[in-house]
Amino acid sequence: MKKRALLIGINNYQAINGLQGCINDVTNVRDILKTFFDFTNNDIRVLTDERATKANILFRLEKMVSEAKPGDLLIFQFSGHGSQLLDRENDELKDHMDELICPYDMNWDDGFITDDMLGNILSKLKKGVRMEIILDSCHSGTGTRDIYPAMVACTMASRLIKNRWVSPPVDIESRYQGDEDKLKPKKAFRTDQRIILNHVLWAGCRDNQTSADAEIGGYYNGAFSYYFCKHIRDNKGNIARNNLCTMVKNSLKFNEFDQVPQLECESGLKAMNVFSV
Description:
Strands 2-1-3-7-9-12 form a 6-stranded mixed sheet, with helices on both faces. A 3-stranded antiparallel sheet has the order 4-5-6. The protein has a 3-stranded antiparallel sheet with strand order 8-10-11. A hairpin with a 2-residue loop joins β10 (212-216) and β11. The chain has a single domain (3-270), classed as 3-Layer(aba) Sandwich (Rossmann fold). It has 7 helices and 12 strands. The chain has 277 residues and is α/β, with parallel strands linked by helices. Helix content is 26%, strand content 21%.
């Protein structure tokens, strides 16, 4: 069995506002992979800031997926800005929105990575390959397209926080204004039509929420990534996914973060330990 990880964190963007905690997220996740899950330096690829372009991210992710064999464990982490666009392919049956992550060279013509793009790459995973995905960005719930959570209101705690959210410019939003009815599906969504997940998705928030880039203990981190790593360390890597999700959710709530983390995977995997194959 081989283990491979691709960790991406972007603080300094080429043309949009920057963040402060994303590279700390990468070093935090890298540390727990090496300390508790027997990853080596050679098993882990890191892309940060100007190296984390759309082309580099997609190339590295596609390469990791294509080379994986049954029994392998893959980890993909992204910490950075996220956003949404109105769906034009009529496949987002709940909110009619495509979730997206923002690479270093983010632009609103074609400089983003959508949930559809990630879904297409993940569809090529060979049977028996386990992939675990960590998205600490705004609107990261359903970031790989496979679950439809309920809509709730969201406010941010009053502290030193930046939202990991990028608003589409007026000209982009104007393309779709008044077209909302055309985006509605022709038939009602049925639960028996759901896609079966072939991976595990950890999302820092629901798809209608923002994720916090927050000062915690004197350092900036993604709030989700901070507590995700903290509880793995506290349990020395031996913790079931559903228990970890509950602990992270409780820590965020206790510390007055309104985001609600998501664990999206087949039900049988929830009771298994995190990063287990």
